[in-house]
């Protein structure tokens, strides 16, 4: 697994008390959360491509990525897929160790609702 993603996972584990286990699936890390949720962490160091996706029942609940399919958003290509299916600009930068703080904060909010 990419060193930057491993570092981000260590930070996530420290920040998010809702983690039950983690699994290295070669191309991504799957984090098992409470209540049947999963958080998939994908990062390709060679290109900087990333995707952090919260999943419930095989459906994306929320997620962040930098695929270039929303070029008109501020801070493109970084964007956030909201629970209601809309997409908005994201403050993520493509640095897993920095971005994971925002991901952990949103996951913690999800479990406080």
- Unreliable stretches covering 5 or more consecutive residues: none
Number of domains: 1
Q: What general form does the structure show? A: globular
Broad structural category = alpha+beta
Question: What's the Cα radius of gyration?
Answer: 13 Å
Distinct helical segment count: 2
Straight-line distance between termini: 32 Å
Please provide a written account of the structure.
- There is one protein chain.
- Strands 1-2-3-4-5-6-7 form a seven-stranded antiparallel beta sheet, with helices on one face.
- The protein is 27% helix and 35% strand.
- The protein has one domain (3-112).
- With 113 residues, the protein is α+β, with helices and mostly antiparallel strands.
- A hairpin with a 4-residue loop joins β1 and β2 (29-33).
- The model has no long low-confidence stretch (mean pLDDT 94).
Break the fold down into its secondary structure elements and pairings.
Elements: H1 3-15, E1 19-24, E2 29-33, E3 37-44, E4 49-56, E5 59-65, E6 79-81, E7 87-89, H2 96-112
Antiparallel strand pairs: 1-2, 2-3, 3-4, 4-5, 5-6, 6-7
Helix pairs in contact: 1-2
């Amino acid at each position: 697994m990419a060193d930057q993603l491993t570092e981000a996972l260590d930070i996530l584990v420290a920040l998010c008390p809702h983690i039950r286990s983690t699994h290295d699936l070669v191309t991504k890390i799957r984090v098992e959360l409470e209540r049947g949720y999963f958080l998939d962490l994908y990062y390709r160091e060679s290109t900087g491509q990333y995707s952090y996706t919260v999943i419930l029942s095989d459906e994306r609940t929320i997620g962040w990525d930098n695929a270039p399919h929303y070029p008109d958003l501020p801070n493109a290509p970084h964007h956030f897929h909201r629970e209601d299916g809309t997409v908005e600009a994201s403050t993520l930068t493509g640095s897993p160790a920095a971005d994971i703080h925002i991901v952990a904060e949103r996951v913690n909010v999800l479990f406080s609702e």
